[in-house]
Design brief:
Layout: H1 2-35, H2 46-101, H3 107-128, E1 131-132, E2 135-136, E3 148-151, E4 154-157, E5 165-169, E6 172-175, H4 180-183, E7 187-188, E8 190-191, E9 197-198, H5 208-219, H6 228-281, H7 285-315
Antiparallel strand pairs: 1-2, 3-4, 4-7, 5-6, 8-9
Helix pairs in contact: 1-7, 2-3, 2-6, 3-5, 5-6
Length: 318
């Protein structure tokens, strides 16, 4: 009888252990189905958990890169709009210069052109000092510095020569700014006691759009004595400045198009990583429900067997 009792005890212990394991599996499947998550802690599946953590970090990085691209692309749009306006101003300045160069306008008309040219210079100056948000977009990395302010030395560039970069990948950056000195140039001059513009001789600093506009201003500042040589130099400079603005727009367009391609690639990466993360983390409901039902049946069978074993065990003591 003792042997029978030991054997019954061992059977009961084995069944209890099996039932506990089945109950634990049943509880886990129930939790996975109700939460939709099959890996809720590192301990459950360390490999899958590490994969999920890595995937989520990559998704966070991708969102940050996409945000950087959006901000950079918006700034580039502002740059492009500004350059379009600059081109319009230069076109009008060239028209004025050609009218004077034709020699068919009188002093009063030239005075009117002088006034309009001053407005054009002010407009271009304002465009060169364009801000996106709270940053001057043509000042290099000195985004809090007004890039152009007229003073005793003329209209000189106050920004620096540094590029600003958008971080668009793990090891990928893209310069997003146009330097004012490259787009607009500068003008070195003084104003004499008669209020006339005087350029240094030799003039090694004046160049670009502002150099040309102030050359034009100087060429027509004496309505009775137009400096035709300086006028010709100014018109060539305006043409060069217009071409510079077109080239800058082409560069902006190329960068923006590149951003579109990178944005598409990041979107695809995001979809793939999200799918991977889902495969690692999310519960496969059809499979989980099927497993849950099988475990449930097994658990019920184990309870029934446990009950029968307990009855046998009690009879051994009667």
């Amino acid at each position: 009888m003792a042997i029978s009792r030991v054997s019954t005890y061992q059977s009961t212990q084995a069944l209890s252990k099996q039932l506990n394991a089945t109950q634990a599996k049943f509880n886990k499947l129930t939790q996975q189905i109700s939460s939709g998550v099959k890996v809720s802690s590192t301990a459950e599946n360390p490999v899958a958990a590490r994969g999920i953590i890595k995937a989520k970090k990559e998704l966070e990085n991708i969102e940050e890169y996409k945000k950087n691209i959006e901000l950079a692309d918006n700034e580039l749009s502002e740059v492009d709009d500004t350059l379009v306006s600059v081109g319009s101003q230069l076109t009008r300045a060239k028209d004025l210069a050609m009218q004077v160069a034709n020699g068919t306008v009188g002093a009063e008309e030239i005075k009117a052109y002088q006034s309009e040219l001053n407005s054009i210079i002010d407009n271009v100056k304002s465009l060169a000092n364009t801000k996106y948000g709270d940053q001057y977009i043509f000042a290099g990395t000195r985004t809090e510095t007004v890039p152009y302010e007229e003073n005793a030395a003329g209209l000189m560039y106050n920004g620096d020569y540094g590029n600003r970069y958008a971080i668009i990948g793990e090891e990928t950056t893209e310069p997003i700014n146009m330097l004012g000195i490259d787009v607009f140039g500068q003008a070195s001059f003084t104003i004499d006691e008669n209020g006339k513009i005087v350029f240094p001789d030799p003039d090694t600093d004046s160049k670009g759009i502002f150099g040309a506009l102030y050359q034009l201003k100087a060429a027509i500042q004496d309505v009775e004595n137009i400096d035709t040589s300086q006028l010709e130099t100014a018109m060539k400079g305006i043409d060069d400045g217009f071409n510079t603005s077109v080239t800058a727009r082409t560069k902006v367009g190329a960068i923006s198009n590149g951003f579109d391609d990178i944005q598409s690639a990041l979107d695809n990466d995001s979809l793939n990583i999200t799918e991977l993360c889902s495969n690692l983390q999310d519960t496969d409901l059809p499979s989980a429900i099927s497993d849950w039902y099988s475990v449930y049946q097994s658990m019920q069978a184990s309870y029934s067997m446990m009950s029968q074993t307990m009855n046998v065990s009690l009879l051994n003591y009667i």
